[in-house]
Amino acid sequence: MGRRPRVEYPGAIYHVYHRGNNRESILSRDQDKNFLLEQIRRVANDFNLEVFAYVIMRNHFHMEVRAGEVPLSTVMHRLNAKYSRYYNQEYNRSGHVFEGRYKAIPIEDEAYLLTVLRYIHQNPVRAGFCPGVNQYRWSSDREYRGQQDGFVNTSFILGILGSNPRASLQTYANLMEEELDLEAITSCQAPSYLEKENEPSVTLTLKMENTKPTLDDILKSTGLNAGEFEEIKQGSRKRELIPFKRAFAHKASTYGYSLSEIGRAINVSGSAINRLLK
Q1: Contact call for residues 155 and 244 (beta carbons, < 8 A)
Q2: Is the separation of the CB atoms in 54 and 120 below 8 Å?
Q3: CA atoms of 26 and 31, how far apart (whole Å)
Q4: Does any domain span residue 203?
Q5: Are 276 and 259 in contact (CB under 8 A)?
């Protein structure tokens, strides 16, 4: 009897993880980790996959992602096939590289979203690879702290943690130092939970109509001063204003505003907002 098809939904957020076949260290070298990371970046770009967090360990990797219109199974098939082909060629071997199917656990509320983020970034510390979250090279923690640029959408979760960028970053740093209750993760990893057939996953959304801020309030929350606020509202193209525009666009999109609505708020086109988001 064949395996049951995995039920997945566009717009849903998942904790995804996959390990090497027989728990082999298929990601032991920096070169291996670099190759996998580049493939994650490519599938995120090609399939409109939002990546909120990742960590690459020696024999497995974790991601926190939001699926687009392309099924997550298609995305993961491309990612795993690319890495498997590279690994078998690099090490002159054949056969399976990954162990069975990847796991994809739906994330249905903000509390679990933050729990998974902590679990992913604290993975190297629990494994004894480093004493602190911010000392591991192969996770998205550095992007959250602004220490490197990349493809991870950090503004979505930082926006949940607070409206002020500096304050939300400090809240994030504090969160990474808190000890994680592993039962909060392991209790949601039973096969019956991973392969529900008839019950759709709830898409996590921040569209809370009673508390949804105005676009002007979102723009002000990015930390600019009154003069910069007026310049952006008038459509100024000054280079030094781009970080504020980008932060505004990301945060406004998490509240469900459309590209055209965000663009009109700062006197630019929706396509310009799309470029900022990328």
Answers
A1: no
A2: yes
A3: 11
A4: no
A5: no
For residue 204, give the DSSP letter: P
Residues 258, 273 contacting (CB under 8 angstroms): no
Q: Is the dihedral of CA 247, 253, 259, 265 positive or negative?
A: negative
* Distance (Å, whole) CA 247 – CA 259: 14
Residue found by looking up tokens 């082999």 in the block:
24
Residue 198 confidence (pLDDT) = 34
* Contact call for residues 119 and 16 (beta carbons, < 8 A): no
Are 100 and 151 within one domain?
yes
Asked if the structure places residue 199 within a domain, the reply is no
Written as six digits, the tokens of 225 are 């001063």
What pLDDT score does 185 carry?
66
CA pair distance 53, 64, nearest whole angstrom: 5
pLDDT in tens, 172-207: 999 999 888 666 565 544 333 333 333 333 334 333
Domain hosting residue 79, numbered range? 13-194
